[in-house]
Design a protein that fits this description.
about 100 residues; 3 helices; alpha+beta
Length: about 100
């Protein structure tokens, strides 16, 4: 927007799945659904990385409820909380209908 990024997503590919490492939304734009929209577009667009994403994972801090909600709304599901309570693992698997 106006030559300034509004959001960015950092990821890597590991063992045939995408690992979402970070999503950052400009502070003044948070709470407007931009992270959720970016994540959905990323998962649905083969052109971004050259292939269809079938599986993904994300580790989220337990206190970051906004990220948890954005990932859930994009199709990720809670998998487990780390034993020490420091983080939560979410997983994504493309359904046959998508």
């Amino acid at each position: 927007e106006n030559d300034n990024p509004t959001a960015v997503i950092a990821f890597c590919q590991h063992e045939q799945k995408i690992i979402i490492m970070e999503i950052v939304v400009a502070p003044e734009l948070r709470g407007q659904g931009i992270g959720k929209k970016l994540l959905r577009e990323f998962l649905e667009s083969e052109e971004i990385i050259g292939f269809a994403i079938q599986k993904g994972e994300a580790v989220i801090f337990p206190t970051n409820t906004a990220s948890q909600k954005a990932f859930e709304n994009a199709g990720f599901q809670y998998h487990h909380t780390y034993e020490d309570g420091s983080a939560i693992l979410y997983r994504y698997e493309r359904s046959n209908n998508t």
